[in-house]
Amino acid sequence: MSYFPPNEEARPIQSPAAGALGRLDSAFLGKVFGLLAFSLAFATVGGFVGSKLSPSWILPLFIVEIGLIFVVQRVREKEGINLVALYAFAFVSGLTFGPIVASYVDAGLGTAVLEAGIVTGAMTAGISAYALTTKRNLQALYPYLFIALIGLVVAMVVNIFIGGSTLWAFVSWGGALLFSLLLLVDVNRTKYRIYLDIVNLFLFLMSIFGGGGGRRS
Prior knowledge:
Layout: H1 26-50, H2 58-75, H3 81-106, H4 110-133, H5 142-162, H6 165-188, H7 194-209
Helix pairs in contact: 1-3, 2-3, 3-4, 4-6, 4-7, 5-6, 6-7
């Protein structure tokens, strides 16, 4: 069994405002956001555990996280195993960003973490509300967002070697905007990547509110 009903993963949500409320599969949406809630719960636990780890764990855990992305894709049709893989990925991703959050708190930027969490929640609610009621099929944005994502990754790699507050500010604002748009499209198409969009949006907002203060030089 997939995380989603057959042929439903890429189905656009029709607008209730346009009289299509009957087409909105509330059970399906409940399943998607239920998976999201449990994923965020596992990520929170992982984040707490990760906050106790040394920053030297970030790279190995990141590699494991990337590997789990492929595992989730491979087993997504296998009932039971798919949920184990999904929640394992969420937990490991929590382990990955746990040390990052801890570095902000240790730098006296706990307020930035709190602000990022609040703004992420508010933006997620607002973006989701729009995505679920708009008449537009936002799938056409994906090719452009994918190119932007590649550009963001390149900028982050360049920043590792060059550094500088200006470049990091550009990366942070660009990342927050990009994952806001990805969240919009993924909610509109009810994609399971919603979890990744929210986590990355939170991390980039935290960097913005913290002025990059939690980032290691």
